[in-house]
Design brief:
CATH topology: Rossmann fold
Number of helices: 9
Helix content: 25-40%
Largest sheet: 7 strands, mixed
Structural class: alpha/beta
Radius of gyration: 18 Å
CATH superfamily: Vaccinia Virus protein VP39
CATH class: Alpha Beta
Length: 252
């Protein structure tokens, strides 16, 4: 994860509360097409507060949630400890600490853009069982949506670290193409998200690039986000056009 481990320090609560899960149809695909359920072992790398981990656990899979940030990992542990198939691992993209050929699937949800792709590919090859696959997952915003365009403008004005949503990664990104040497499937599942005012602002504040309350422009930033909500809300709710995207392939 290069030098990105600390980017979410202190954001675990707002991240868990306001970040969305992933499209139910996407999880159904994993269950029906890949057999992810009881008896399947999954390594969820960069698992954060366990949002995607939880959805995998609900399928009945055994999930090794690998997360280097202590705040994010502790949040997942407090929320998911009751699942018998949950294992919390203090590891990273290049060193999961998992045994050789121990998992059927490696996932990275909203995380690959933080990784060292070459080191991650080597680690995936090491821990995957023969025939295993890698799944890169994102919730991607529709770039043509006026809400998303206005949100982007606010981030660009107030957040110096902003280079684009999800680290600026795109559906047909060179980093993904190079990671999968034999090609991959690109699958999309519609997943519109509706937010209250609090939820929309909270979702924005959970971003790695969002400035913190000690920043002198923080109140202006939050006010600008509020104006975006006010401009687009209908009956107290704002629609965020969003798609859950799967990049699924083999490294063999």
């Amino acid at each position: 994860m290069l030098n990105n481990i600390g980017k979410f320090t202190g954001k675990n609560k707002v991240y868990q509360k306001y970040r969305p899960d992933y499209a139910p149809n996407a999880l159904r695909y994993l269950q029906e097409k890949l057999g992810i359920g009881p008896g399947a072992a999954v390594a969820d790398i960069g698992s954060g507060t366990g949002i995607f981990t939880r959805q995998l656990l609900l399928l009945g899979a055994e999930v090794f949630a690998v997360e280097p940030n202590p705040d994010m990992r502790a949040e997942a542990e407090s929320l998911l400890a009751a699942f018998p198939g949950f294992h919390s691992i203090a590891g990273r993209d290049s060193n999961t600490t998992l045994p050789d050929q121990s998992v059927n699937l490696v996932t990275a949800a909203q995380a690959f853009h933080w990784f060292d792709p070459k080191a991650f590919r080597l680690e995936c090859r090491r821990i995957l069982k023969p025939g295993g696959k890698v799944l890169l997952v994102w919730n991607q915003r529709d770039p043509t949506s006026p809400v998303n365009q206005d949100s982007r403008a606010v981030f660009a004005e107030y957040c110096p670290d902003f280079i684009g949503f999800s680290g600026g990664i795109s559906q047909r990104d060179k980093r993904i193409d190079e990671f999968f040497p034999h090609g991959y499937e690109l699958l999309s599942f519609e997943h519109p998200i509706y937010y209250t005012r609090e939820g929309y602002i909270g979702r924005c504040l959970s971003a790695s690039y969002a400035i913190l309350p000690d920043n002198p422009r923080y109140e202006q930033f939050v006010a600008a986000l509020g104006r975006v909500f006010d401009a687009h809300e209908q009956n107290g709710r704002l629609l965020l056009s969003n798609t859950t995207v799967f990049n699924l392939g083999s490294l063999e």
